[in-house]
Design a protein that fits this description.
It comes from Pseudidiomarina salinarum. Helices cover about 70% and strands about 10% of the residues. By secondary structure, it is of the alpha+beta class.
Length: about 325
């Protein structure tokens, strides 16, 4: 790249600009245009703030739904971890055989822990708690079997994996019956999948709406500066140079809109947290909503900036090129 200048003693001269200087000038021009675009927004604060608020509030709902899904996943994980497979052993097994079988199950990688409920201890506990002690004394033998409470390993707690483990346990020689209520696990998993799919669909629709809103705002801004753009093209400005300030406008929309989305999401979570606590207390739980962490807030902010940039890019690519000096 080179430029021409004229001195008093010489004619026009060609001066070469180094690649490093061109690189520095490129970023200096970008910084100037970014500041200039911010100045344009400050000149019309109400209109600019309304567009930013629409962008931010449009992202608030999917962000809040994400928090709900995240907390729901945590609840579902806790419930699945609490699930146990109840194994009833054959009555003719000796204590040594039950102990050996219990140790063998503890060595399995599919099982996290095994709790042995001795049939004699279970009968004694039932006699004390039921009030039928005299009736139980009339029995010739203990009617209760030894019971094992088996907690599956972490990767075996999904409904399909737990069912596979259940079938495997039923095939053991020492097992009379094994039970696990899979229906509620399957219903829980189906409900969580429905919530996730609904969240993704709604988030996608709202993101498209944000892109359209920003794009339409930038389009109106371009049309209002139509004469200025034609003059710039007459003096040799390229489309890329003209488009850049509008692109930075979209970025500013995203930056401020992301902050608004984060604040609105935090406020909404704080608002509903008391209701969630009240419901959890009815179930004797201390559960409370966990909001967005730092990494999730940064992702939300980047999404807002990306949507603002995408909306402005679509608008400037379509409309700036159509404006030509007569």
């Amino acid at each position: 790249m080179s430029i021409l200048f004229r001195s008093r003693s010489q004619g026009a001269q060609q001066v070469k600009i180094s690649g490093f200087r061109r690189f520095v000038m490129f970023w200096v021009h970008n910084a100037q245009q970014a500041v200039a675009s911010l100045g344009e927004l400050v000149r019309y604060p109400l209109a600019s703030l309304m567009t930013m608020a629409v962008l931010g509030l449009s992202l608030t709902l999917p962000a809040t739904l994400y928090v709900v899904v995240k907390n729901t996943d945590a609840i579902g994980s806790d419930w699945q971890e609490a699930a146990e497979i109840t194994v009833f052993l054959r009555k003719n097994l000796s204590q040594q055989e039950v102990a050996t079988f219990t140790k063998r199950l503890n060595l399995s990688p599919d099982i996290e822990s095994v709790k042995w409920i001795d049939k004699n201890e279970a009968l004694a506990e039932f006699r004390e708690g039921s009030g039928f002690g005299s009736a139980l004394d009339a029995l010739s033998e203990n009617p209760l079997p030894d019971v094992l409470l088996i907690t599956p390993a972490a990767d075996k707690r999904t409904p399909s994996a737990a069912e596979t483990l259940l079938r495997s346990l039923k095939g053991e020689r020492e097992v009379e019956e094994a039970r696990l209520d899979l229906a509620w696990l399957q219903r829980l998993e189906a409900l969580l999948n429905l919530v996730r799919d609904g969240f993704l669909a709604l988030a996608l629709l709202l993101c498209i709406a944000v892109v359209l809103i920003v794009g339409n705002t930038i389009r109106l801004n371009i049309n209002s500066k139509r004469d200025e753009i034609m003059v710039m093209k007459l003096v040799g400005a390229t489309d890329a140079y003209i488009q850049r300030p509008f692109m930075y406008t979209g970025v500013w929309y995203g930056i401020v809109g992301g902050i608004i989305a984060w604040l609105a999401t935090a406020l909404l979570i704080w608002w509903i947290d008391d209701a969630v606590r009240a419901i959890s207390e009815l179930y004797e739980s201390q559960f409370s909503l966990t909001g967005l962490n730092l990494q999730e807030m940064l992702v939300l902010w980047l999404i807002a900036v990306g949507l603002g940039l995408l909306g402005s890019y679509i608008a400037v690519r379509k409309h700036v090129a159509t404006i030509e000096p007569q």
